[in-house]
Amino acid sequence: MSRSTKPHEIVERALELSTADGCVVIADEESSANLRWAGNALTTNGVTRGRTLTVIATVDGKEGTASGVVSRSAVTADDLEPLVRAAEAAARGAGPAEDAQPLVTGTPVSPDFTDAPAETTSAVFADFAPALGEAFARARAGGRELYGFANHELVSTYVGTSTGLRLRHDQPNGTLELNAKSPDRQRSAWAGRATRDFKDVDPTVLDAELAVRLGWAERKIDLPAGRYETLLPPTAVADLLIYQMWSASARDAVEGRTVFSKPGGGTRLGERLTELPLTLRSDPHAPGLESAPFVIAHSSGDDVSAFDNGLPVPVTEWIREGELARLSTTRHTAGLTGLPVSPGFGNLILDGGGEKSLDEMVADTERGLLLTCLWYIREVDPATLLLTGLTRDGVYLVENGQVVGEVNNFRFNESPVDLLSRASEAGRTEKTLPREWSDWFTRAAMPPVRIPDFNMSSVSKGV
Asked: Is 225 exposed, middle or buried (0-12, 13-18, 19+ CB in 10 A)?
């Protein structure tokens, strides 16, 4: 089907073709623009566009409702009916779906449902590119080399159902990652930012920040493994808490499989996780972090259900003033666990009312470590949510409120839930880009956090 055919027309035509008992059609119009650079010079740039159509058919049988899902890109007019029939055949050939629920009802229609999709172009970098050129010049003059990339994506998603829902959401997503290296490659520093439109990121500011860090790294200090007072920057806090939320399924907790399971049965809901007044929440309308206000599920999984497409996503407090308040559920798992329906999260915000910046927290540190970011995070034990991973691109020693040099990298072993219980201070919340999970999740706002005894389990020789 040509790109001149509007997405809402594709959705309507697929619904018309459906002979299933229920049908959900999702059309995703995707566009992206990117810049890449190395050694203080642009290397590549490009723009891409694509269209994906997903058809979810449901069939009510004697043993229950079954579903079939088929998703294809570059769908033409001739492909549309075979795609619908394939989804119906998949549903008729499948057994009853465990997560089967009536399709979401109601008559909400997004006012822009029939409008053309939003698209990004290289024009998104109109102000950013000249500033990047200035950053290159400054880096060259300062004896450092900049590497990195800027990427902007825009996805317009159209959801139509046989129950009458007609919903549309436009999701911009921009990331900027910048590495500064010394010419001998012995020193490296990283900074990253998330953005919706590249109007609120300045590469010259990041370059200045990285120049300071490369200066810190001129003095090398070897430290052994051990427990150290450690300042986690917002990006590291985001990586840890995103993984925590990925492990916050109510069903898994009730079945005794996670860190949120209560010994002897049940969940830890209502339990105090930290003495700090921290609130972890998701809000689809949070300024600068806007995400889909309704469920978009291309298939069913452990924590998402295709039957929930179109279900409103409310503001949810996962941790409230230090206490575990919610675990994630679909309508199906909410019924199994007896807990409220709490759809997955499109953004994540941690706020404890702190006012200090990371620099101010450094100034208040007698002796400790300052991290840049975490890398290669992997799960060791789901029962405690013990994670392991590496520090990367700069670990610095702080003495008497001053950074005195760069130390070796470490492997760490920590549970984010346990870290919350031991955290002694949280600073000012700010938008941040997770380093490890930026390919999957970018909409986060976190404070820097002080941990009195962060476990650096072994020395790592990596940069």
From this structure: middle
The string of DSSP letters for 129-143 reads HHHHHHHHHHHHHHT
The pairs formed by 402-407 with CB atoms below 8 angstroms and a separation of 24 or more are 402/362, 403/216, 403/362, 403/370, 404/219, 404/221, 405/216, 405/217, 405/218, 405/219, 405/220, 405/221, 406/187, 406/216, 406/217, 406/219, 406/220, 406/221, 407/220, 407/221, 407/222, 407/223, 407/369
What is the per-residue pLDDT for 3? 52
Q: How many CB atoms lie within 10 A of CB 385?
A: 23
In DSSP terms, which residues pair with 42 in a beta bridge?
A: 37
Point out the residues of the chain with pLDDT beneath 50: 1-2
Please state, in angstroms and rounded to a whole number, the distance separating the CA atoms of residues 220 and 353. 35
Task: Give residue 462's pLDDT.
Answer: 61
- Compute how many other C-beta atoms are within 10 angstroms of the C-beta atom of residue 189: 25
Q: Which residues pair with 230 in a beta bridge?
A: 369, 451
**Collapsing DSSP states into helix, strand and coil, what is residue 336?**
helix
Query: What's the one-letter identity of residue 210?
Result: L
Q: Specify which residues 95 forms β-bridges with.
A: none
Distance CA 92, CA 245 (A): 35
CB 371 within 8 A of CB 230: yes
d(CA 262, CA 333): 18
> pLDDT tens, 81-113?
999 999 999 999 999 999 999 999 987 789 999
* Pair of tokens at residue 341: 């329906």
In angstroms, the CA 84 to CA 195 distance is 37
Q: What angle do helix axes 77-93 and 7-17 make, rounded to 10 degrees?
A: 50
The predicted model scores a pTM of: 0.96
State the residue for tokens 């910046």.
357
Check residue 185 and give its pLDDT. 87
CB neighbour class for 127 (10 Å; exposed up to 12, middle 13-18, buried from 19): middle
- The structure tokens listed for 242 are 């995103």
Task: Give the model confidence (pLDDT) of 165-194 as tens digits.
Answer: 999 999 999 999 999 999 998 899 999 999
